[in-house]
């Protein structure tokens, strides 16, 4: 592409008259007079010319150096003599060179400037034209894309509508076919079920008749075998008893004196031990209402057994009663979960729970439903303690406040709550080692029943029992609520003995007096929980006696209680709990509230 450069508006300067190349820029001889006058003025101002030449040729250093050299050459040495003609030629030559060096052609400068302006204008027009061309191309491309997108959207909608119509027709046909098959299948299965029912009834009658015949024959056979076996056993027993009687008669005389001496010694020791225990129990009875730990265990297990086999089983077996109990139970559980550490919220939830169990604007509940609701309420409180108090021990306070008010207000709730407490904690709520027999003096039905009665539960993360750490934390959370209940002073009337403050002393006395409890890893954790809740208050109540108990506990976690055995044993959980017990003892001695 070619571009035309416009001419500049500035006028073209007039060129000077061409010079003769052989004269080095000098004028003709006809102008000799002007020339001589100019030359004479030039010679008169040599110093000024040197300065002007230097300033005009500052951009060209080589020209300036040449003129300087020529000036030096024009200076004639003193020992060289020239004719006047030579002097004139030299001076004319120097003057011509000087004029040539100082000359600037205006036309050439104008021509160069005009070329630059033309090129600049051409570049500007080319840039504007190209930008306009690009904008038009972009606009054309965008319009084409928009048109194609609209066309594509229209085609897609048409295809989608056709597919949707085809899908609806296909779905309709499929539904009609399915309905036809379902009707046919229902009819077929109705016939099949009828035939099966008829055959099952025939087979059941036949099997029942055969079973009665077999049972009758088996009964007769067993009766005959039993009579024969009893007769044989009776005969053998008589023979054995006869032999044993003869042997015992011989040994009786030999053992009589020895047994009399041993019995006398045993009676003496038993009498001394009994007198010692009576003195200790008398001292304890003077301090607080005392019941044995076996009695507390027996009462709690008996109450729990009576609840499960009585009201709870009766309500669950009756459809109407179960529906009413389930409706009220669903109101209880969420309210326990809404409890916060706010006095107004605690009072509001407590009154709502009391209103559910003892409605003021409605007839009282059926007694079995009321007892079962108390059972569910106690279970909800303990489960809430296992989850919330395990995570944050300060949540035991509001839960204990609600439980205390319920114990103080609701009939039969104290015994029900303590029975559930013993069920969830095992013997630690009393405390005592769980016996090998139940309260009816019969062995436990299975090992699992004994473990469950001891307070262990299944693991929530898999098969098997919970870990020792999880078991210890769960029991500790429940006992923290129990100790907080003991800490509250009743305002209306005294509570049951198991919820009175002296029970705190009883609990520590039993714990420190039984080595079977002390070697369990749970023991130091529960001791720490009790000290953390009521340790400082107990110091103000029992004074020096409580300090002695604390000293006994300190000895058990430092030097050992029996042949150097430490409380909690060698398990890692016991070691960690002993450190917490040490910190709690220091806080109590220093009067610092935990």
TrEMBL record:
Pfam families: GLE1. Keywords: mRNA transport, Nuclear pore complex, Nucleus, Protein transport, Translocation, Transport. Gene3D superfamilies: GLE1-like (1.25.40.510). Residues 1-63, 134-158, 230-276 are annotated as: Disordered. Residues 1-13, 52-63 have a biased composition (Low complexity). Its main location: nucleus. GO terms for biological process: poly(A)+ mRNA export from nucleus; protein transport. The keyword Protein transport applies. GO terms for molecular function: inositol hexakisphosphate binding; phospholipid binding; translation initiation factor binding. GO terms for cellular component: cytoplasm; nuclear pore cytoplasmic filaments. It comes from the Eukaryota. Residues 28-37 have a biased composition (Acidic residues). It is found in: Nucleus, Nuclear pore complex. Belongs to the GLE1 family. This is mRNA export factor GLE1. It comes from Galerina marginata (strain CBS 339.88).
